Structures are given as structure tokens and as C-alpha cells.
Amino acid sequence: MEGLNHVEDHPEQLVCVWFQLVSSRHHSSCRQIFPGLRQYIVYWIQFGRRVIKSSYLTFSTWRDSVTAPVISEPVNRTPSAMEVVQKEHSRLLKRTEGSQGIRNVQSAIDLLQSARDAIAADPSGASATLATLQTSVKSSFDSINDSLKETHSGLNKYTKSLDKLFKDRPLPSTDDDGLSAQEHLINRAIAMHLLREGQFGVAATFLSEIAEQKTINPVSPNGRGPASTSTSLLDIDEVPSTEIRKQFASMYYILQQLQENKNLLPAIEWSRENRESLEARGSNLEFELCRLQYVWLYHGGANSQGTTSGWQAALEYARREFHVFVPRYLREVQQLVGAMAYSPNLGGSPYAALFNNTSAWDDVAHFFTREFCSLLGLSADSPLYIAATAGAIALPTLLKLQTIMKSKRTEWTSENELPVEIPLPPQYLFHSIFVCPVSKEQATDENPPMMMPCGHVIANESLKRLGKGNRFKCPYCPSESHPKDARKVFL
Amino acid sequence: MAAELTSTKLNPESHIILDQPLLRLPHELARRNFKTVQRAVEREKEYVIPALKETAAASLSNTQTPDQTLAALDAMISRMQGLKRKMESLQEEEKKIHNQSRKRIQHLEALHKIPSLADVKYDQWSRVRLDRLLVDHMLRSGYSESAKQLAQDRGIEDLVDLGVFTQCQRVVESLRRGETKEALQWCGENKAALKKSQHNLEFELRLQQYIEMVRTQDKSKKIEAIIHAKKYLIPNHQSQNSEIMRAAGLLVFTQDTRAEPYKSLFALDRWRTLSNLFIQTHHELLSLPSQPLLHIALSAGLSALKTPLCHSAYTSSSSNSQSTSTSVCPICSTELNELARKMPYAHHSKSYVESDPIVLPNGRVYGKQRLIDISRKMGSVDSGDVKDPTTGEVYHEDEMKKVYIM
């Protein structure tokens, strides 16, 4: 089934998957698993690639309908470790709920009580009553212990299932992770994270607890210079608590107005105040906001019924506000205003997409957050979130590495660089990366990328090694040049 | 080394490395709870059955009045009722723990239903995980109020261990104040489990009590110290012989001595060592990692994201806050920049640049189309010109030169 995940983009692969399955030993099972697939392929062969492309949606829905039952179908599949854990645990839970232990204790109490009553009523039969009482109380205790044993074995089974789930996956033993000594920086990052997530209450508590603890334990004698600690701790007091906190509070106010009340005015006001810096960044946030405001007015504004007066309000708004944008966004403004000619049948006009963009509000909110954070020199998504997520993705690879290195007793040579490549999702790549095609090393400040006159780029050290001060041939094209003709480039 | 540069594959089984304590801890608590039940039952059994036998024998040999028999039975009944009450409350506790475990299992199972790392659901799941890691970090650092508030705000109380850590923190604080009572009580509650531990927390606590008695230099206190040592320290002579000798030697020194090792035995800093030892023992007993999980995740994540450009003296063209079409790299962002300084950067075996790269006369490399787009959006750039978004220099489009990066 692996192959099917990518079939969407390349329908022809579908045929390959099919032929593989048919010719493999799993012929009969594949007929069960893929009912209708054959038909689909016949269809594909008959009508060719273009048809499939146009019926793309049909294919996706078809695939989902086919793959879904396969996952749940119990074709002699060994349950995954997680499922075993789940099963053992629900057994444990059931056993606890139906526990006999307390009932057995109660029955022992009942026995004792009735014996007592019997003796009180007739003291002469005491010894006989007590003799039978002994055996029955003993058996009560035995059954208590039996039920305990049962619970115990349930607990043990659950332990085993957990062991299996986490088998070979111990938590990394980081004796010195280099982070413990920088507690204050972590705390600062957390405070910033809480602020940018809008958790102002938690952030306030957190900062006051840090301050409190600092007064109790002024300087921990960990060999750290007290001077450096105090300056960086000052940092944490100043950065998140005053200026940044105010900034984030206003960001949250604006976002809240934007998302919950569809009120763009605070955002527009902010973008006006920061017009200069936004323009320097090449940001068209202000225009995007005003454009959305225009569209929103056209759709009726706050009372989203009366579309008849909507276009008037929109035009009024355009007349008042858009003149600022005309020099730079002439075409867009023309489109927006020109679209009014089609009102009220705008849906059928070429401008329909401009006015019916369902994700427009989310996009603008996202855009605003990004611009706001960028002006503060911060990334749009919480760095702490990205780093922790990337860490969780990287951990399996790093752990494997740790075990291999331990068993081979080797260490990697470059301590500045991780020894393995860790594939992260594409949105986690933030910088361009230059790896010298000659030395296979990543460029650094000490070993920057150099462009030869032919336009090929190699690292500075490779350049020196190849050229040795003389003219040399580029390793990738026939042109020759002198090392001193190469120029440093910035990625 | 032809590893993929990027991947959105999600392997749930190996993805939950960080989440071991999530299931281990409540399980450890459930086991402890069970052992308490077991011990309670055993204790009552050992009392009731011999007592019953005795009463029966006495009754048979007529050495007991009926009233005495009744009294003995009453005593048994009340003890059994006590047992029942105890078991009931422990069962409540057990149910609570199991329900918590169930919620945690459901949380981890949710990950198995997420198709890839690019899925929106993964994003949500990962945010919950970050909140868990933050609460864990706050609890370990002693910021209990913040932890509680965050857990409540995010509705993840069942996924974090507020109770366990708060209790731990209470003992730690009492030790820092110079009190051994709560720590010793904890040792008493976990006696059986502590036998397996390699650290002798209880011995160290008793030794501290002894040191405090000697510190007073009061004669009667010193005698009390000797009695205390006989009772609590000497029984450990097999494993802690040298420590006991040292403790004996301590009797002739005062706390301002400069002679080692007595000086460090008297040192007030020993309380901090004790509280650290307590934390270590406590975490070990509950299979909690000694490092905050956040540290583990961050040290891996910072390295995986870091590039040589993040701490470069030159502003990167590909990701900086001055340009609108790129997002600021999290390592370059002020929150994490300093933290990541000492971390190794990620390994890459292939270059990764924007498509159709060009170089400007100042040496800066950009994707051609992106540069043109940015310049169009920026004010004060004439058509046919491009503006370097990093430095603000303006060039003519003809000055862009194709660059080949392999």
C-alpha cells in the first residue's frame, strides 16, 4: 500500500502497483483489498492520462474509500505495540472496576459480625462457632489474596506491554546537555513563548515565580560567575515583562478584533503607524487589510444581509482610502473598483475570486502576525514550538546514532556539526544551505562560498586547494580563472 | 549519504520517545498503590487469623469469659472495617490513576491516526506536547503555580503530573529549610522500593540529623547523637563503613573546623546536596528522567535547525527580518539565538537554494523571481530596478548575474 500514497501525482504508477500485486504471490488477497482498482485501471488505459487528471478528485475519493477499510481489516495482522498497551490497560481498568477485594473484606466482616451476634446470644456455643469461624475467615482472606494476585498479574502484563512499546527506545542519557547551565535563557524563551501565545496570565505568574525564587536562592554556587548570571537574569526581567509584553498584548487585541469581530480597523491603524518600516520590508500588509475591508463592506459589513447598500459603502470606502495606494497598486485598485460594475451578479464575473476567498481572513491574520513579529525581530511561529517539534522529529535519529557510537566507541570529528543528516519537513528549512560540491563541507564564516567568474560556486578552502595561487580550471566547466578573481557570495 | 533533505514521514512508534514518562509514571503510581493494598491486607491477615485462633483456643479451654471473647471479636471487626475503609480509598485512587492513564493512552493513540508531519492535526498534537513539556519543566524548576495555571488554561491536567511534582517540591523545600522530617516520612512510605536504589537517601538523612546534633556542641545533644548513630547509622556499617567512621570522628570537631572531610560534613551546603539526592532518588523511583524533557527536545531541535548562517557575522540573504517574503528563522530569533550558540549545527550533504538563483553586484544571492516580486511591492523602486531587501541597495535588473550552485 506504500506505493499508493504517491500515486495521486503519477497515475501511471498505479498500473505498476497493480501489475506488481497481480504477479506477486498476493494475487488473491489483492483482489480482496482492491476491489474496483482493476476497473479503475481499465478506465485509465482507455481514456488516458488526461482523463485521470481531470477526474483527480474521483481518484482521491476512490482511493480513500479503498484504503480506509484495509487499515481496519483484521487480516491476521499482529496488533501494534500501542494497541497492545491499550488493550492491556482497558483490561486493567475493567478488573479494577469489578474488583472483588472489598467485597471479600465485607464478607469477612459479616462472618465476624454474625459469629459475634451468635456468641452474644448463646455464649455456650462459642467454641463451636469460633472453630467454624476460623476456617471461613481464612478462606475469605484467601479469596482476597486471589483477587489481589489477579490484579498483580494484570499490572505485570501492562508493564510488559509498556516495555515492548518503548523497547530499544530509552530516553537519551544527556549528562551534559549544555542547556542546564543556561536555565535563565530557557526561562526567558518560555516567557516569550507564553506571551506570544497570548497566555498573559500564565506568563505573569511565571515571571513572578522566577523573581521569587531568585530572591530565595540568590546565586547557586555552580561555578558560574555571579556577574554573568546577574546580567543575563536582568535581561529576563526587562525583555519580556515591559516592552515586549505590551507589544504582544496589543498584537492579541488586534488579532482578536480581526478574527472574532471581523474588525479590521485596529489592524489597519497599526499598519498605518508602521507604514514606513513595512514599506521598507516590501510588505503590502496595509493594502491587503484595506482590500479585505473593502470586500467586507461590499458583502454588507457588520449586517451581512443588505448587499444592495454594500457596494455603495465599499465604493465610498475606496474613494476615501484607496488614493494612497494608487501609485503602487494601480492595477489592483482598478480591479476592485471595476468589479463594482458587475454588482449584483459579481459571482459570475471574472472578479469572483477576488470577492469570495474563504481563507482570506485566516490569511490576513497570519500575514499580520508575521509582519508584527518580524518588526520586533522575531519569527512568526513560536521558535520554542518549532525547536521542540524539530527535536521530537530528530530524536529517533540522534538516539540511533548515540547507540551506534557507543557500540563502536567512535566520536565524530567535527564537533561543531551533527554527524548525521536529519530530514525535517520542508517548512523547517529557513536558510539556504551551501554545501561545497568539492569538499562536501558546509560553508561557514571561516570558509565562505566563493563564486568563480564562470558563476560556479565552491567553498573558499576548496578554491585555495584547487588553485594553489595559479590559474585553474573550474571543476564544473571548461573555463579557467585565477583564485583571486573569485568573489565571496552571501546566501 | 544520499539521505532525503526533507521528509514529512511520521513514524508514531519512534515518535513517542519523549512520551515514556507519560505512561510510565502513572503505572508506577498504580503499582505502588497496589503494594500498599497488599501490605494492608497482609497486616490484617497476620493479626486477625492468629487472634482468632487464640480466641478459639481460649474459648475451648474455658480460660476466657464470653465478654472477653466478644471484646476480641469486636477488636477484629473494627480492624477489618478499618481495612475496608483503607481499601476503598485506595481503590478510588487506583481508579483515578487508571482513568488518567487511559486519557494518556488515547492521546498517544491519536498520533497513530495522523498521516504525516505536514498534517494540521500533527501541529495541534505537537502543541499539546509542547505544553506538556513546558509544564514538566516548570514543575521541575519549582514554578508550581505557573505549571498549574498553564495546565488548567490548556485543559491538559490529565496529561501532566502536577500532584507528584508538587509533593516532591514540598519535600525539597523542607530540606532546603533544613528539615528532615518530610523526607524521612517519604523514605518510610517507599521503604521497599528504596532497597533497590543505589543511593542511600535514608542513611544520608540520618547522618544529617546526627551532624545537626553534633553541631550544637551541647553535651546532652552529643550523647543523643551517639544514641542516634547507634540506632540509625551503625546498622548500615557494611555499606557505609567509612562514612560512619567519619561521623564518629566528627564528635571531636566544631563546625568552624578547617580540617577535611569534617569541614564539608558541617557545611550548610550539604542540605542542597541532600535535596538534590532526594530529587534524584525520587525521579529514579518513578522512572522519571533526570533532565527536564524540554531540555532533551530542545537540544535535539536546536541542532537539527541550526545552520552556520544562524550565528554568522553577515546577515543571511535567505532568512532575515528585513525581508517580507521569508520568515525569520527560529534560531535567529532573539528567544533562542543565544541558547543555540554552543550547539552543533545540522549536517547537510546537499545545497539547498532558491530556484533560479542570481547574484547581485554586492555578492548577495536571491531567487530571481522572488527578488523581482519584492522589488515590485516595495515603494521607491523604479521599474527595471531591483532592491536588495537585506542591504537596501538598488541595482538595475541587468546587473543580476546567474549563479550556479550545485
TrEMBL record, chain A:
A UniProt-annotated Pfam family: CTLH
Listed CDD domains: dRING_Rmd5p-like
GO BP, sorted A to Z: proteasome-mediated ubiquitin-dependent protein catabolic process
Keyword Zinc: yes
Zinc finger (RING-Gid-type): 436-477
Record key words, sorted: Cytoplasm, Metal-binding, Zinc, Zinc-finger
Taxonomic source organism: Penicillium vulpinum
Domain RING-Gid-type: 436-477
Primary localization class, coarse: cytoplasm
GO cellular component, one term: cytoplasm
Parts forming coiled coils: none
GO MF terms held by the record: ubiquitin protein ligase activity; zinc ion binding
Subcellular location: Cytoplasm
Matching SMART domains: CRA (SM00757)
Name this protein carries in UniProt: GID complex catalytic subunit 2
SUPFAM superfamilies: RING/U-box (SSF57850)
Family assignment from sequence similarity: Belongs to the RMD5/GID2 family.
UniProtKB/TrEMBL annotation, chain B:
Zinc finger motifs (RING-Gid-type), residue ranges: 329-391
Keywords: Coiled coil, Cytoplasm, Metal-binding, Zinc, Zinc-finger
Ranges in coiled-coil conformation: 73-103
Location(s) in or outside the cell: Cytoplasm
Keyword check for Lipid metabolism: no
Chain's role: Involved in the proteasome-dependent degradation of fructose-1,6-bisphosphatase.
Protein name per its UniProtKB record: Protein FYV10
